[in-house]
## 1
Amino acid sequence: MQYRQLGQTELKISELSYGTWAIGGSWGKTNDEESLRALDVAIDQGVNFFDTADVYGDGHSEELLAQAIKGKEDQIYIASKFCRAGDIFSKDTYSKEQVKTYVENSLKRLQRERLDLYQIHCPPIEILKDGQVFKVLDELQAEGKIRHYGVSVESVKEGLLCLEQPNVAALQVIFNLLRQKPLETLLPEAKKKGVGIIARVPLASGLLTGKFTKEHTFEAGDHRHFNKDGEAFNVGETFGGLEFKTGVDLVEEIAWISEGRESLSNAALRWILDQDEVTTVIPGFKTVDQVKRNLEALNVPAFSEAELNKVNEFYQNRVHEHIRGSY
């Protein structure tokens, strides 16, 4: 495992880390015992950073993390998120009193006294333009509730707006082979300003595992069913904004990247890791096997310049026009 500095913070985090949305819920059936075993394997293999949120299983993923890292709290960095447990369009959701309540509830579930990274969870752009929430986070940082703060964004425009705030330490962005727009301006600007990049939805909600056919159906409680067209939240969070069947076709076209890299998912994660501006990539997981398979990406060959150019041309010529939503 290699470790990368998170922006200008003192945190050195594993270049491949894990997101915990799936073990909290909204990805079909879960098994807590298997989730805890998977977390143990990740930690044993050097993963020292986990991303969660208060709405993942109504706090359940935070509770699972607390169990998994008991006795190892000083070795593991935790990032959580807030605002989506309330009305994301109301300024009251971002008041000092409310945000303090959110962070204290997360700390209680995580059994911690301070969060390493606290992120605004995909707020409307009007909230980012208003900017008051950043002053609230500055105050919570001064009080010792959080070490650093950042923003999880849906679009490049939102990300660039956040970079205008001097104390934003990290941006969490949707970034994968099928969602390359951040490469154009956002990632270079973040690097220039010393802001860390956390790449989420790295496998496009499973599309980039190559395991799906067009006939595949998802469980009713899986966001890949109930949010497939953006019915519940931003469509970009599901399949990176692609219509499912279109995504399956596109993945077949890009499958050549797996040659010499064991699997398509390995290659997809390796491609993200090969981007210099990325601090860490956070695939999700529900099983021990998924954790182990994702970690294999660390050992496969990097992309050559010719391959990188070919992947970029594929995105520009075949993928870009099919992405839905604001990105």
## 2
Amino acid sequence: MANYKAVISENAEKPYAALRREVAQQEIPNEIPPLVDVLLNLLQEANIKPNGECFFRYISCSNDGQMVIEAGFPVEKVDLKSEIIQFGSFPEGKYLSVIHDGDYGNLIEAHKYLENYAKTNNLTLDESKTESGVVWGSRAEIYLTEPDLTPIEDWKTEVSFLLK
């Protein structure tokens, strides 16, 4: 496992624009990354400028591995109504996070690290378990480097979970 250093921070509410999809867990690498360029084009057409890094926000996971995920960018608060773009926000609160270095294929290690860190340090993640799966208050990967411009070994991703 990577050499992670967990950080707890107090974050303000952060509005965003995103595209939401329900996909099988194993299809995330094929289905979600292409949404980024689609969203950027939609935002440009609506004259909305991103003001931060691209992220994937994990909304829920059913017991059969179906996940609801948003690919998005932070934006200024927007009053626009759209049938395609989801406007939401990361809630204000305390977040537990780590920086993952390298290949996105290994990001699951950062998720597992944070889950274990929370458990061993008596921190409660903001999540609701239901009969059909789990819903997260906020569980996200924030992509701090541009993969097309950065060698894979230098990729940096913040993995962040909202605490209760």
